[in-house]
Automatic annotation (TrEMBL):
Name of this protein: C2 domain-containing protein
InterPro entries: C2_dom (IPR000008), C2_domain_sf (IPR035892)
Annotated keywords: Calcium, Metal-binding
Keyword Calcium: yes
C2 domain sequence ranges: 1-101
Organism field: Rotaria socialis
Pfam families named in the record: C2 (PF00168)
């Protein structure tokens, strides 16, 4: 089974979702099937969180997209700051990607911030 390692490094300029303070962001990560959902710790009162957390996924053939959802943690309901869907085809070829990704607004007109991810892929060893 191949492995996908995702390092959630940091976020910057995340859109404020709270009225009286900055957001309390965390990141939820999953592959196409949502069976392996993982998430970062919550960072309190910041729009520029630093996580530096590493997650490893068992990767099966056909799981070609990595989903990233950034939320603001609240008492009752978590507010979604932004989402993105990363096509893993380039990663299969290059084996390593270190990139900042834009979190587009709901209609794609503006940005809800950026997230820095490092992706590493180790193919199945026979």
């Amino acid at each position: 089974m191949a492995q996908l390692q995702v390092t959630v490094v940091e976020g910057r300029n995340l859109k404020k979702k709270d009225f009286f303070s900055e957001s309390d962001p965390f990141v939820r990560i999953y592959l196409d099937d949502k069976h392996q959902t993982q998430k970062t710790k919550v960072k309190s009162n910041t729009k520029n969180p630093y996580w530096s957390e590493i997650f490893v996924f068992n990767h099966l053939k056909g799981q070609n997209f990595l989903h990233i959802d950034v939320y603001d943690k609240d008492l009752l309901f978590n507010d979604k700051i932004g989402s993105l869907k990363i096509n893993l085809q380039d990663l299969y070829e290059n084996k390593h990607i270190d990139n900042w990704y834009n979190l587009p607004s709901r209609f794609g007109v503006s940005s809800n911030g950026e997230i820095h991810l490092i992706l590493d892929y180790q193919p199945l060893q026979l």
